[in-house]
Every structure is written in structure tokens, then in C-alpha cells.
Amino acid sequence: MTGKIQFIIALFAGKCARLALRIFGHNASYLPGAVALKICPDFLGRVAKPEKIICVTGTNGKTTVSNLLEDCLRSLGKPVLSNRLGSNTAAGIAAALMRGVTARGRSKFPVAVLETDERFAPLIMPRVSPSLVVVTNLFRDSIMRNAHPEFIFDFLERGIPDGTPLLLNGDDPISSRLKPENPRKYFGIEKMPGDVSACPNLICDMRVCPECRAELEYDYRRYHHIGRCRCTKCGWSSPEYDYAGFDADFDALTITFSARGGADKYRLLSDSVFNAYNLVCAAGALSELGFDRADVTRALGQAKITQSRYNAVKSGKSDIIMQMSKDRNALASSRAFDYVSSRGGTKEIILMMNNLSDNRRWSENTCWLYDCDFEFLNRDEITRIVATGPRAPDYFLRLLLAGVPENRLRCVAEETDAPDALEYPPGGSVYILYGTDAIDLAYKVRGRAAAAAAGKAGAV
Amino acid sequence: MIIEALYPEICNLFGDRANVSYFARAAGARVIETPLGAPPAFTRERVDLVYLGSMTERSQEYAIGALREYADALRARIASGGAIFATGNALELFCERIMADGGEIAALGILPASARRFLPRRYNGLYLGSFEDIKIVGFNSRFSEIADGGGAPSLFKTERGAGRDGRPLSDEGFRVNNFLATYLLGPLLILNPPFTKKLLRSLGASICSLPFEDAAMASYEKRLREFSDPKTGFEY
After folding, report:
1. Chain A contact for B69, CB < 8 A?
2. Which of A130, A259, A410, B175: CA 20 to 30 A from B38?
């Protein structure tokens, strides 16, 4: 009884906090949940929930996949509850679930898509009892918070309830081994032109067999440990796909997706392999939710990528492109570098992935720079790289060690001054690579770069 | 000069492997990478420096298992002044034991010390210390600490941050002859060019300057200023 009263007080207090925050124009996507959890630690277990809950977790791609799923479900006519605007921690999810209940404590939504931080999985998943857990991948992430993939793997092992159906990345030999007793389906992308067998990156967290520790052989690999591998000593191998992407065409921006004995062609969200994985993952999740092939095709046909992560504007004779490159995350930044370096034409780059909040309070741990493939930026078409922000000297040194000629580099203390160090060659692109807490600053830098590019074009 | 990187397929977390590439580049050294299951090169040929980097907790057990039959060879190497450099939790391999929640892991027993894990809690902090007359800057990020150092001499004298036993200002790492081990992780040799030069010279390298030494010193000096600033927070 005490628990029930606690819960009612928590719900009321959380709703009041939400109302107050909304009046003052805030999203109310965290604090109401934190208040509710403080009053009733089992709030997540007690709050009324949608009939179907999909938890999306993993190191990279969980936001994109969650947003895609939510958009698709909406376009298929399903009212969807999500934590899109807020935190993916227990408090953020409590706030989202609270938003989804009526004054009488009933759920207003039939389905929820909850982006779930891997470290919070043990707090969240057993209490919300997901109908499906989607794991995009497991990679190295923040050294301080996430340590290494094995540490995060153990969090998910503890967090995912026994028996919960899983959708796992069959091309990720780490996360595909989660909860071996749970029912599971695998998604993946079949061999593509450009695949390699040797690792093209500095780090691969799956070099030895999980069973016998012999060196693994990769039949094909996209990057790091993503690909299909096997152990020639004990026979362990990557799983077969249930949902497979194939015939990916990054010029035509299409990929074919096979499910339930048929195949359909989808439009890719962008010309990057990691977004192809995000699309195939979302298509697999929709199939797992019971949507037929026509519905999945229709829904994904309308999908778009989140604008804050990648957007481009034309100014003068240059394209100015903002590309999120997660700070303190060597893998995500390596993917961004690989993507930028593979684009055609002359490019100039502003590197501003400093973690601003770390640098305000202490001094950012920069070890991750040496796990990250700055070597991808050593290309003749990249004519200028400006290292900027508090860690500019560290980036500058790392770029030199990556072989980038010094005459292509500039080191600028203030981010807003970085555009002045570019040359804006006609027809070229300027990439602004920014971290997760520097979105506003990146827009400011983009504005200055756009003005400089327009000025340069006008002066010619 | 020859550097042997032991078990690079698992001892490669947190940018540690850059220590080998930077050191090799500075010294013009050849690098031998020895995988799990292969006998270490230092047991059969001259190796100037043996390096071990950070690894996962399960990998610590694999590495201990792989090195156990070479514990006497490691002991002999240390006693004769052969160089070994270990960063991050590779240091714990040389202890007598690692105490963990699930029980005790018998380590190589080369140092009279015991380590204790406090996983899943992670200690994150900056480090400022000294090696002889050289200032050292670095990063701590670990699930463990030395519970009993057994009186073994330390590598660095701590000026700010936590030492090997996790307490503020306690001594950091271990140093026995040319065996150098520290909990500090990541590209320590790139972060600390003066220390790297000293280490290279102690191994007989006749170097005038390090690769990109000006840029490395600019980065080092900025970090040293930040770490010496009392306003800079030291624990994450």
C-alpha cells in the first residue's frame, strides 16, 4: 500500500513539475522523471505503459534508429510515445512514460519507442518489460564512462530481461552474443564492393575468438569489428541474418532488404554505411513488430535523418556542411572522418569536437584521439584542416602524427575564428565536425563560414 | 632498437598502442607484435623494451594465463635491468593477486603487491606528478587500485590526483630497475615528451628530437598549465 501511495504522489509531483516546466517553455523531458524516481524508486515499474515497448540501445545509431522507428510508426498511423526530446536515462524514460499517462493513470499510447542508454539498461529494462530490445552495435565509447565494450556488454546482459525478444546486429560479433538464451533475430548487410578482410582502422575489439581466443578471420569487414568473421580453430562464426540488406548502391541511394521470403528496395537515408545499417535495423524492427513488407516500404520511404547530425547549406561557391562527430568517441569520429574523406571534391575541415563541459570543469581526457582514425584525413583533396577549441594543440599534434602535412594545418584557439583560416576554393566543401555539446556553437561557426564563403565568392 | 608489444590484440585500449608507435618512430625501432599463444620474443632474442598496454578485465586473465610460464623470465629480465613498460591495468599483471568480487585472481607474483577491483565503479581523474626532475601529466580511468603495495618503489611522485592506491597524493606506479609500470593510461609517451626523451636515452638511443617535438611540447605545456591550475577539477 505504501508503494502505491508513493507512486501516486510521485506521479502527481512529476506531473506538476512537468506543467510548471512547460509553462516556462521547457521540454520537461528529464526533471519530472527525476522527481518521480526520487519519490518512488519503482516508478518505472508501476507507471502504466503502452502495450508494446521497443527499447533501442547500442553504442552508435540508437538515436537515429529510435527516431526512424518513431517516424515510421507514426506514418503507419500508430500514436507513439517516445523520449525523443529528452534523456535516454531512467529519468528521461520516466518523464516520457509519465507524459503518456492520463490523469487516471492509464496509458494513452499503444506503443513506445524508448532510446535507452546502455548503462541504464539494468535500471530501465526489467521495469518496463520491453516487447523487443534492439541493439544497434557495441563499440568503444567514452573512456571515462563506458570503459570498454566488455563492460557495457555486461550491463546489457544484466539489464535485458530473460526471454525478451532481441533484434541484434549480426555483423557485430560483440553485441550479437548478448543473452544467448533469449529469442533473437539478426540483421546485417551482405558483402558489398569495398569490403575488406584486414582491419582498416586503428582498433578492432574483436580480434580473438570469444570461445578459444584464437585469431579470428574476417570474410568481409566494413570497419573495426563490423563484418562477418569466424574462428578457424574452433568453428565459432558470426550468425546468419534474418533480415538482410544487399545490393547497396550508394550513388543511387538504394538498398534491397529481404524479409519473410521477399525483397524490397528502399531509399537510403544518406550515402554512409552506418546509416545503411540504421535503415536495415529499423526495417528489421518494423518487421518484428508485425508490419508487412508494403507497410515497411511505405514508412521507410518517408523517413529522413535528424537534421542536427548532418546538414548542408550552399554559400557563395562552397557547400558548408555540419557533421556531428561525437566527442570522446573514437569510433563515431572515425566513421565521420571516413565519410568526409570519401566525399568527392576539394574539402576543408574545421575540427571542433572538444567536449565543452569537460573543458569547463576540468580538462578533457584526450586518450581517445589515439584510438581514432585521424589518418583518414590525410588526403590530398583535404586542403586545409583547422584544429580549434580548447584541445586544438592536441588535435594538431594528432594530425601531424597521422601524416597530414603541416602546411595544410592551422591551429586556432577560438572556434568562431576558425572560418577565417579557410580558403573556400570554388566548388569546394567546408565540413564542420562538432561534438555533442557544441551544436549551438557549430551553428555559429557555420554562420561565420557561410558569410566568409559568400564574401570570398563576391570578391572574385 | 627492438620493441616488443605483448598481446596487441587485447592490450590495446584507450589509445595505449600509440605509445609503441611513437616510441618506435622516435627511436627508429623495429616493433615485434607477439600474440596470445606465442612465446614472447624477449625470451629468445635481444629486445630493448617490452610493452604491455591496457586491457579489459577478462583479458587480464588471458594475459596472465599466457605469461604465467614466462614469469621467471620476466623476473630475470627485471633483475638484469631489462626494460619493461606497462600502462593502465597491465600493471596489475605483475602483482601477486587481483582481488575481485567473484574471488581472487592469481597474477604473476613479480611485485609484492595486491590489486583490488571496485567494478562497476570507475575512478576517473587527472594526474600531475614527477619522474625525477620531469613533470608528468596523465589520465587515470580505472576499476581498481593497489590494495597493498608491499613497499615496492613507485614510478612517479604525485603532486595532484590519485596514486596507485587510489588515495590523493599517494605515490604512483612501480619502478624496479628498468621495470616501469603505471596506472596512467593512454598515449603517455606522447603526452610527456620530456619523459619519453629520458626513457629513450636510458635505453641508449641517441636521439636529438622527438617526432613533431614542437607540437608535442606545445600540447604538453598547455596541459601542464591546466593541470597545475588550482581551479582545474581533478576528479571526473
Report:
1. no
2. B175
Beta-bridge partner residues of A411: A387
The answer to whether the CB atoms of B18 and A370 lie below 8 A apart is yes
Question: Residue A367: its chain B contacts at CB < 8 A?
Answer: 14-16, 139, 141, 185-187
Q: Please, what sign has the CA dihedral across residues A50, A97, A55, A73?
A: positive
For residue B211, being part of any structural domain is answered with yes
Note the pLDDT tens digit of each residue in A262-297: 899 999 988 889 899 999 999 999 999 999 999 999
Assigned domain for B135 exists: yes
Does the beta-carbon distance from A365 to B186 stay under 8 Å?
Answer: yes
> Domain with B146 in it: what CATH number?
3.40.50.880
Query: Is residue B233 in a domain?
Result: no
Chain B residues close to A145, C-beta within 8 Å: 122
Q: Given CB atoms, is B13 within the 8 Å cutoff of chain A?
A: yes
Q: What is the pLDDT of residue B141?
A: 96
Beta bridge partners of A189: A245
Instruction: State the pLDDT confidence band at B118, using cuts at 50, 70 and 90.
Output: very high
What is the count of structural domains for chain B?
1
Q: Is A24 touching B (CB cutoff 8 A)?
A: no
Contact B122 A203 (CB under 8 A): no
Range of the domain at B179: 2-228
Domains and their CATH numbers in chain A: 2-190+241-301 (3.40.1190.10), 310-459 (3.90.190.20)
Supply φ then ψ for residue B48, to 5 degrees.
-80, -30
Max CA distance (Å), chain A: 77
Q: How far apart are CA A352 and CA A363, in angstroms?
A: 15
ipTM of the complex: 0.97
Residue ranges of chain A whose pLDDT lies below 70 = 1, 305-310, 459-460
Contacts of B219 in chain A (CB under 8 A): 393-394, 396-397
Contact B175/B185 with Cβ under 8 angstroms?
no
